[in-house]
Hints:
The chain is 38% helix and 20% strand. The chain is of the alpha/beta class. The strands form two sheets. Strands 4-5-6-7-8 form a five-stranded mixed β-sheet. Strands 2-1-3 form a three-stranded mixed β-sheet. A hairpin with a 2-residue loop joins strand 5 and strand 6 (159-168). Helix 1 (13-25) packs across helix 4 (78-84) and helix 2 crosses helix 3 (42-54). The chain is globular and about 55 Å long. The model has no long low-confidence stretch (mean pLDDT 91).
Amino acid sequence: MAGNKGRRIVLQDRDRHLLSELGVMRIIDREMTKLAAGFGSTTQVNTRLLELTRSGFLRRFFVGSVGAGRKAVYTLSPKGAELVQAKFGGIHRGAGRLVVSDAFVEHQMAINQIYLAIKYRPAPRPGVHLNRWLTFRQSISDGIKLTPDGYAEVQTGEALRPMFLEVDLGTEALSEWLKKTAYYLQLAVSGEFQRRFRQPQFRVLVVAGSHRRLANIRSTIAKSTDKVFWFSTLSIINRDGFWSPVWLRPSGDQRHSLL
């Protein structure tokens, strides 16, 4: 298959799978590519990412700084998005440029860590797997102004556990969490969730970028409810695992597993 820069590449099933996953995740780095596409070595994944970039299926740019180090990240090109009919195409950054402290990139990469943990990291017992993942372009409904970072339906044996995801890196006021909490409670009691998602109930997973931020969000939400919400941080999830007892409820200090 000819690329748009005169390069030729034969797309493998693994390549198509990676491009499809990028349609969900929007942006990846080398380690995410290893996990999602099953590459065994750093050399192998670096070579393939370069080939896909030169053939016009991926766009590459860099995050970080020259002094502190930088790393390559990849997104779908228009050609790659068209190939896999991605609803979410690439992001609007100049290919090859250095992007420093890009809030969108940091937030999306954090969402991707959770998505990959649910889908590709081993679960503690058989029969646990991701059934469905949704990404939202707009609010859930006209009356419920929520645009979650993700929605997962996880099969755990005979039970199906619906979970919304909210990743908070400290870029919005805590007052926004009062609004979000009210909308999630409205979604739970109004029947709107049952009508739209065909499931009886849901959880909201709140993943914060720091322990202090997590404590502030928990305190804010606890003023309204002690139900629905589960809390953790990116660092704890990355250290101990998504399915481990790393989750707090709005009140109390005991950590729980989602299973």
